[in-house]
From TrEMBL:
Gene3D superfamilies found in the cross-reference section: 1.20.5.170, Calcium-transporting ATPase, cytoplasmic domain N (3.40.1110.10), Calcium-transporting ATPase, cytoplasmic transduction domain A (2.70.150.10), Calcium-transporting ATPase, transmembrane domain (1.20.1110.10), HAD superfamily/HAD-like (3.40.50.1000)
UniProt-recorded name of the protein: Calcium-transporting ATPase
Family annotation (CDD domains): P-type_ATPase_Ca_PMCA-like
InterPro entries: ATPase_P-typ_cation-transptr_C (IPR006068), ATPase_P-typ_cation-transptr_N (IPR004014), ATPase_P-typ_cyto_dom_N (IPR023299), ATPase_P-typ_P_site (IPR018303), ATPase_P-typ_TM_dom_sf (IPR023298), ATPase_P-typ_transduc_dom_A_sf (IPR008250), ATPase_P-type_domA (IPR059000), Ca_ATPase_N_dom (IPR024750)
Entry keyword annotation includes Secreted: no
């Protein structure tokens, strides 16, 4: 079937243009019953166009403002070089007073009383227009803070937060209001075929009352209306619940926390609790949460490409202090004063439009739209043919009876019923539920994954993960616990075991002098990006990364005091990043000396050192033999799975360039070994991946010996596998890379560029479906390049999370494997539903068409077909598309991206079950009265009811058969799945009600218990038939290469029963 689907419906997983999305919508054409429902979860391309135009205007505005700001800055700098005369100074006082009045003009009385002296709109334009002149008039950030009644040291007072939100607005963007339940009812009523059936029902009631009187004349029409009401309500309830799930997930996606100073204490708050006046701490990988003014910081580099489109980052400092909401911190750290929040920021206005654009539809949704369109066209042809055959046959019979000129209202009613039947065939034939079943299954999977600590940001990721052939994972925090402690140190040539519980004397050798201890504590407490803070209760805590926390804890155990050791002035800071693998600071010490401190990857820092320090605190040359000894110590720690860091310092001479951090000539203070144990369950998770045909590669910045030790412990590195270092990998040619990557299981000392190249080569050359994890800002390109990007929820930066498809909330590798299992489950569940629905489609179409051609009547009426449509569409999707995964899914190879979605195995089952059902129903239709021994005037009604009942029970048992496409045991886990069991039970109960009590509306008559038993038995026969079908072998494409490429077809046959 997929050969007949137009190429417009075959979309890539990533990198789809709006034009590509527009083409498949056009390819759907008019064969859509309800466009509102079909395209509910598709991207709104018109809104995206609006957002693009708004972005273009915003970028132009920022560009103009930035040019004006640069010119103003130059003018101010030039003017500042000339000393003003006293008279000039006097004349400049009036403009300042005028500016003061301008700032408070229009300000609410409430704001004045609260001590705020600047209007929110003036404040907003200050940053958005880069108004440096006005900022200078306000006397810089200190003057602005005074006008906002906030201390730059103490921050906002907690009891002022609500009044600041009232005056300056909350930090929230305007979002599209969520739809009520009745809106979903209204959208369900937009189904064109249902509208036509409502018209038919109204006409039927009118004609019926005229011919048969009250109340009999109303039954047929009321039956159709009641069926439509039932379809609409069930559909609306299902869609409404689905929308609530997405709303809940959207809330989770937007949970971002930032660090601010409030009440003099550094603390974490939600981005939505941010107010004007807050002092925000920014570090590498953070998103700037609001517009603001730079207070202080080091090497603060901001990526403004999200707003300006410019890829070159901007350096922010005192002379260029403006920070815009939605931009990203690429390097450095700093503090900012929040000036504008929420909808007053340019980013807020843009987000309002962007949020209405929606998310891209998934490849499977689009493919099933193609399937639905193709089947819909076939169904339309059959519906028209059925109506023509019935109408022509009726007219011929009327002509043969010489009654062609004699027409009654009964004849009109019969033709109307034929038309209603044809329209209902279209209702059944157009499988509107196919693409929506994907959304339903993905929504269910996403909700369950949320409980399992995985937040899926993009629907397609959950779908694609089922095809993953390779997972490139970080080590720290993903394979390990990320609870780090210093367990070994090498200081002054002596190796020490660290046990903090035994006190300071057991942490440090007693021979080591106070001078060494002092310089070690300086190296720990000055050269850090973290802080030791005390909360309101006086309890000490450390804010920072796990590695920094471990080293600071070690320093505290040595008796160090964070604030006391940092009495000097920081002159320059080079924060740690994954490219340099080191952090450096330049400090002016209280004694007047200038000293540089450096720490980072042990072998890198060791190369910078040419001196060491002895136990007496004397600096001595570092000989080659001592370097070898230190290297042996490093390797020894690494072989014990310890993460190793070196700490070094250098005193700066007067002749050295000012505020420049040296790259050589350091004195080695210590080697630190940090313990980070492997997470429980990781080894089993890796084993599960290997059994599922998924290769696991570990990519880390750590020492290669540490990496190999951890990889062996996790079961990643086995005999015949290769471990390489990033610098060696970089030297390989593309061909060498393609040959080596299948064997590479560990890459140590890797840079983000190495990770990106590995992912790109694996995808483009080796055609693997790659999942990759990342936590740093520089991981964003690899996360974006991969088929599925996983960002770490705890250790990950906001930039990494923005680039990722899935956020692993517990940073656990086992969670990633769980996502893979659910991804496979989604794919298989949709296949089950498609198999079930296509079987119903074929049988419903063929039984009515063949009966119409041969007997001139359709055994299934409009009301009955609407009930069947409800079973196979909404209820079928709920039952089959929400099946939870089982462990067997991870014991088969991944499904490749080139595999047909509707497999030969599925066609075998569909055709086999369709032949059985059609044979039974056609036999009952033509010779049912004789077989069942029925006589009397109601024999035809009884047979038609029996056919309807048997048809429904065939679908009930076939729904159970569809729980597993290949295996014989279809009852596994069925009774534990309350959704499936509930739907099957409710279908049977409602079928009894329709047949026994609603016959007047549904054109049925009550059946005897024997006929009920026969209906159930005929339906149940489909189960042994399914067993026979699953024993029939299906030809598979054989692999042309011995190398596993991850695209093996799904296994089938009795061997897996």
């Amino acid at each position: 079937m997929e050969k007949f689907i137009p190429p417009e419906f075959d979309l890539p997983n990533k990198g789809r243009s709006d034009e590509t999305l527009r083409k498949w919508r056009e390819a759907v054409g008019k064969i859509v019953k309800n466009r509102r429902r079909r395209f509910r979860y598709a991207a709104v391309l018109e809104k995206r166009s609006e957002a693009k135009e708004q972005m273009r205007r915003l970028r132009e505005n920022i560009r103009v403002c930035f040019v004006a700001f640069t010119a103003a800055l130059r003018f101010i700098d030039v003017a500042g070089q000339f000393k003003k005369l006293p008279s000039d100074r006097d004349s400049s006082e009036n403009p300042v007073e005028d500016a003061e009045e301008d700032f408070v003009n229009g300000l609410q009385e409430e704001a004045r009383l609260a001590g705020y002296h600047i209007h929110p709109d003036k404040l907003a334009s200050l940053v958005s227009s880069y108004d440096i002149k006005t900022l200078r008039k306000l006397k810089g950030v200190e003057g602005l803070a005074n006008k906002l009644n906030v201390s730059l040291d103490e921050g906002v007072k907690s009891n002022d937060v609500s009044i600041r939100q009232n005056i300056f607005g909350p930090n929230r963007f305007t979002e599209k209001p969520s739809k009520s339940f009745w809106m979903f009812v209204w959208e369900a009523l937009h189904d064109l075929t249902l509208i036509i059936l409502i018209v038919c029902a109204v006409v039927s009631i009118g004609v019926g009352l005229a011919t048969e009187g009250w109340p009999k004349g109303m039954y047929d029409g009321l039956g159709i209306i009641f069926s439509i009401f039932l379809v609409v309500m069930v559909t609306a309830v299902s869609d409404y619940k689905q929308s609530l799930q997405f709303k809940e997930l959207d809330k989770e996606k937007k949970k971002i926390f930032i660090q601010v100073i409030r009440d003099g204490i550094r603390q974490k708050i939600s981005i939505y609790d941010l107010v004007v006046g807050d002092i925000v701490h920014l570090s590498i990988g953070d998103l700037v949460p609001a517009d603001g003014i730079f207070i202080s910081g080091y090497n603060l580099l901001i990526d403004q490409s999200s707003l300006t489109g410019e890829s070159v980052p901007i350096n922010i400092y005192e002379k260029r202090p403006f920070l815009l909401s939605g931009t990203k911190v690429q390097d450095g750290s700093g503090k900012m004063l929040v000036t504008t929040v929420g909808m007053r920021t340019e980013w807020g206005k843009l987000m309002e439009t962007l949020s209405e654009g929606g998310e891209d539809e998934t490849p499977l949704q689009v493919k099933l739209n193609g399937v639905a369109t193709l089947i819909g066209k076939i169904g339309l042809v059959f519906a028209v043919l059925t109506f023509l055959v019935l109408a022509v046959r009726f007219l011929v019979e009327k002509g043969l009876a010489h009654e062609f000129t004699v027409w009654s209202s009964g004849d009109a009613l019969k033709l109307l019923n034929y038309f209603a039947t044809a329209v209902t065939i279209i209702v059944v034939a157009v499988p509107e539920g196919l693409p929506l079943a994907v959304t339903l299954s993905l929504a269910f999977a996403m909700k369950q994954l949320m409980k399992d600590k995985a937040l899926v940001r993009h629907l397609s990721a959950c779908e694609t993960m089922g095809s993953a052939t390779c997972i490139c994972t970080d080590k720290t925090g993903t394979l390990t616990t990320n609870h780090m402690v210093v367990s070994k140190t090498w200081i002054c040539g002596k190796l020490n075991e660290v046990d903090a519980s035994r006190g300071k004397d057991n942490i440090l050798d007693s021979d080591i002098s106070e001078d060494v201890l002092r310089v070690l504590l300086q190296g720990i407490f000055y050269n850090t990006g973290s802080e030791v803070v005390k909360n309101k209760d006086g309890k000490t805590s450390i804010l920072g990364t796990p590695t920094e926390t471990a080293i600071l804890e070690y320093g505290l155990h040595l008796g160090g005091d964070f604030d006391e050791q940092r009495q000097g002035k920081l002159l320059k800071v080079e924060p740690f990043n994954s490219e340099k693998k080191k952090m450096s600071v330049l400090v002016s010490l209280p004694d007047g000396k200038t000293r540089a401190f450096c720490k980072g990857a042990s072998e890198i820092i060791l190369r910078f050192c040419d001196k060491g320090i002895n136990a007496d605190g004397e600096i001595v040359p570092l000989t080659e033999e001592q370097v070898r000894n230190v290297t042996d110590v490093i390797n020894g720690m690494a072989n014990e799975s310890l993460r190793t860091l070196c700490v070094a310092f250098k005193d700066i001479d007067d002749g050295f360039p000012e505020n420049s951090i040296p790259e050589s000539g350091y004195t080695l203070i210590a080697v630190v070994g940090i313990k980070d144990p492997v997470r429980p369950g990781v080894k089993e998770a890796v084993k599960t991946c290997l059994a599922a045909g998924i290769t696991v590669r570990m990519i880390t910045g750590d020492n290669i010996n540490t990496a190999k030790a951890i990889a062996k412990e996790c079961g990643i590195l086995n005999d015949g596998d290769i471990a390489v270092e990033g610098p060696d990998f970089r030297l390989m040619t593309p061909y060498e890379m393609s040959q080596a990557i299948p064997k590479i299981k560990v890459m140590a000392r890797s840079s983000p560029t190495d990770k990106h190249v590995l992912v790109k080569t694996s995808r483009n050359v080796l055609k693997e479906v790659v999942a990759v994890t990342g936590d740093g800002t520089n991981d964003a390109p690899a996360l974006h390049e991969a088929d599925i990007g996983f960002a770490m929820g705890i250790a990950g930066t906001e930039v990494a999370k923005e680039s990722a498809d899935v956020i692993v909330l517990d940073d656990n590798f086992s969670t990633i494997v769980n996502v893979a299992k659910w991804g496979r489950s989604v794919y298989i569940n949709i296949q089950k539903f498609v198999q079930f629905q296509l079987t119903v489609n074929i049988v419903a179409l063929m039984i009515n068409f063949i009966s119409a051609c041969i007997s001139g009547s359709a055994p299934l009426t409009a009301v009955q077909l609407l009930w069947v449509n409800l079973i196979m569409d909404t209820l079928g999707a709920l039952a089959l598309a929400t099946e939870p995964p089982h462990d067997g899914l991870m014991k088969r190879p991944p499904v490749g991206r080139t595999e047909n979605f509707i497999t030969r195995t599925m066609w075998r089952n569909i055709i086999g079950q369709s032949i059985y059902q059609l044979s039974v129903l056609l036999v009952l239709n033509f010779v049912g009265e004789q077989i069942l021994g029925l006589n009397g005037s109601d024999a035809t009604e009884v047979v038609n009811t029996f056919i309807f009942n048997t048809f429904v029970f065939c679908q009930v048992f076939n729904e159970i058969n569809s729980r597993d496409i290949e295996k014989i045991n279809i009852f596994r886990g069925m009774f534990g799945n309350w959704i499936f069991s509930g739907i099957i039970a409710s279908t049977v109960v409602f079928q009894v009600i329709i047949v026994e009590f609603l016959g007047t509306f549904a054109s049925t008559v009550p059946l005897s218990w024997e006929l009920w038993l026969y209906s159930v038995l005929l339906g149940a026969v489909s189960m042994p038939i399914a067993v026979v079908l699953k024993c029939i072998p299906v030809n598979k494409k054989t692999a042309t290469s011995t190398q596993h490429d991850g695209y093996d077809p799904l296994p089938s046959g009795p061997e897996l029963a």
